[in-house]
Design goal:
Elements (H helix, E strand, L loop, with lengths): L1 H11 L3 H6 L12 E5 L5 E4 L1 H16 L5 E4 L4 H13 L4 H7 L13 E5 L14 H9 L5 E3 L15 E4 L14
Antiparallel strand pairs: 1-2, 3-4, 4-6, 5-6
The chain binds zinc ion (ZN).
The site of zinc ion has 5 residues, from strand 4.
Length: 183
């Protein structure tokens, strides 16, 4: 797995120290995925079977409470993560800055097929303002019941910006990765 990651690190010019200094975890790409949801544009969002089912139950409960939430990102391959980083590098954003909002390939929770980025009508995707929405209040109260936990709270130990929209499914919450906890 490390060899696969190194290829991308070299391509993108990601300093090894940066990964080491931030203690970024390394994940495997999920192999068994299913369609968890379909976006308005027809895009399929893939998750592991357990995460997909949990998402569908969570979404149904939100709908019952008149809360409108939808996925804007689910499973991502190493390759896709590298493309997202490349797009930002191409417009002149320095790699260190890109990596405060995007994990290096191999280090994104989205590789696991258990993480979702969630949005709600009326706010732009993946911005901190999501925290002020009814959807975020609802998730804060109920998402844990469905196994979804906020991965990157404010001042998280991995140096990512606060991501109120990014939630990860954990079948066994007792084993949640330390990334999910405020240091
Ligand atoms: Zn995310």
């Amino acid at each position: 797995m490390y060899a696969a990651i190194q290829k991308y690190r070299d391509q993108l010019g990601i300093p090894l120290e940066l990964i080491a200094n931030r203690n970024l975890p390394v994940y495997a790409e999920a192999e068994h995925l299913e369609v968890a949801d379909i976006g308005k544009n027809g895009q399929q969002y893939l998750l592991t079977q357990a995460a997909a089912h949990a998402w569908q139950e969570l979404k149904a409960a939100a709908t019952t409470d008149a809360v409108d939430i939808f996925i804007i990102s689910a499973f991502r391959s190493f390759e896709r993560q590298a493309e997202l980083i490349q797009t930002r590098l191409a417009i002149g954003i320095p790699i260190a800055e890109v990596l405060t909002v995007l994990a290096p390939p191999g280090c994104s929770e989205h590789h696991t097929g258990r993480a979702v980025d969630i949005c709600t009508p009326g706010v732009p995707p993946a911005l901190e303002v999501f925290e002020q929405t009814e959807a975020f209040s609802w998730l804060s109260k109920h998402a844990n019941q469905f196994g979804f936990f906020l991965s990157f709270p404010r001042d998280n130990r991995y140096g990512y910006l606060y991501e109120p929209w990014h939630w990860c499914f954990h079948a066994n919450p007792d084993l949640i990765h330390p990334a999910s906890q405020v240091p």
